[in-house]
Every structure is written in C-alpha cells, then in structure tokens.
Request: fold
Amino acid sequence: MTVFLPPKPFIAQLTDKLEYNERYTQFRFEIVGEPNKFEFKAGQYVSIQVSERGERRSYSVSSSPDVTHALELLIDVAPQGIGTKFLESLNFGDTINFLGPLGRFVLTPETTEHNKPIVFIATGSGVAPFKSMLHELLQIRQARFKQEEQSFIPRQITLHWGMRYSQDLFWLEEMQDFMQNFSNFHFNPILSRPTEDWSLSRGRVTAVLEASSLDLTADYYLCGSQEMIVAVKDILVRKNIAPEQIHHESFY
Amino acid sequence: MTDDTSQQQPFVSEQIVGKYHVKVINEKCIGAASCVALAPGTFVMNEENIAEVISQNGDPDDMKLLGAQSCPTAAVIVTDTETGKQVWPIEESDY
Reply:
C-alpha cells in the first residue's frame, strides 16, 4: 500500500524559466522559508494559489523526487488561463504559495516491487509526471539496484508521447540522455502533424497503440486529456490488458 | 429495530459545526483526491474513486475551503450556511 505524505503549505521563489517554444515553458522554483524541504512521490502535483481571491491551479512536478529544495513545473501556456497568466507574470525572485504534495498518480508498489515492464503514454504536457517517474525509476532506483546486485536485470520502460508538431517537442536532450545511459529505456515521440522529414512515429497515439503488439505483463500509466485517457484505456482493455494494470491522471 | 439511525442515515443526524457546508459534484470529480489529502475528516474516496463527504464537521472551515480550492476540476462546492451564499467556486456575479 502506498503511503502519502500529508500536504503542507510552501513558499517558493522563481529561479529559472525555460521557454522551450511558443507553447511550453518550464518554471523552476526554489523552496524558501519553512518548511524548507519539499518531499513528494514522482507523479504527484502541487496546487498553486494564482489569485488573491484564492483561486488555485494544479501542476504536476516534473523534477526528480530526489531534489527536495526545488521543483520544476512544465506548463502548457497556450490556454492563457488564470494559472498560466499568473505564472507568466512572475519575475525572477518572486514567490508563490503552494500546497503539496497532492495526488495519487504514482508508481504503485505492484509495479515497482515486481520489476514489471512499464509503458508510459502521454500527450502534450501530460508527459510532465512521467519525467519525474523516469528520474525515480532510472536515476534513483535502477542506479541503486545496479550497485547492490550484479545480476540485476532492468525492466523495460517505454514512453509513447503524442504531440502535434515537431516544434512543440521539448526535453529531447533529457530523453536522449536517459536512452544513452539506460538501454532499457525506449522513447517514442509520435507526431500527428509531422513534416515530411519526420522519420519517427506518425499519427495519433491511439492509432500507434492499435497497430502495436502490447506487453500483457506491463503496467500502463496514462496522462493527458480526458478524451485521450478514455480512448487509450479502451484500446488497452480490448487488447487484454487487465484494468488493474492501467493507471491514469486526467486533469490535463 | 433500534433508535440508532446513525448507521442507516449517517448524514441526516449530523450537526453542522462550522459555517461552511461542502458538496461534491460527482460528475466533475476525477479522483485526484486533493480534498481528501487536505480535509481527511470531511472527504473520503469511494470505491469508484469519487470523492464523498463523510462529515460536515470533520475539519475546520479553512481546511474544507482549501480542499475545495485545490480540486483541479472545481468539483467541490462550498456554501456559507449563515448567509446561504456560495463561497466556492466564486460565482461570476461576485466578480
């Protein structure tokens, strides 16, 4: 059974901002004041106060759970809602109030303890919690097991990530690093509107999954729009993946 | 038959201690469980992974409100029982 830490109020200061493209920006916040350590499980999110009236918005943490003095959030700024406007208005050094950790979309003990293969399926910014999970699985857990056991056989981990255009993609260097350092990690970016020179997967995530043979022993973690979650779950169940092997987060 | 109706109708006999009354809109709940994390005496997740109110007086009003404000889909409605006004989500007319 997974034990979740109770959420606490935190204050954090904007220290870095990476505008990957017109649509996606990564914000990095350092924790200031007390409590000064933000502990969370990969896949969890924070709730940021984005207005004086108390409105809040939820964002998955994309950084490693090993880092407790800071957190990174990947934001799709295209909707230009109250949350993105608030975050975009911040200057370096400005502080935010957030509550966390929140959410139960985490790697289950059934997945982690039994070294089962894992398939991550994301669309758009839904990839954010998976980056945190990759840090945990590859850089923390796998590195530790490797040191402890010579005979350790790493699980297969695949990330299918659906986007529209190649210019929307980000974290390609990070994914490349994961692939170079961990041969059991497979990265499959899928573009629904690729240019002619795109040599990797094309089409919608659902079409790619329909055409693929699926590992019946793997655990599947889905994060994206409600529409995508419903469609992918339907495919997985039709392809004989047991419902208890399917986990999802659907507030993107 | 006994006089103890608390098991049959747990919500009817309950007293509202705080002034905030909370209600979950089932159709909007996506099971994120932030309300449960912030106000565990008020909310629980049911077998379908939908938040349910178990008590109106299980947490202080400010935590009930935070639980509602932290819901990613604004599935929790908070009403001030003294004024009858909806406190959360803020209604358009209050802008």
In short: The first helix of chain B runs from residue 34 to 38. Chain B has one domain: 20-94.
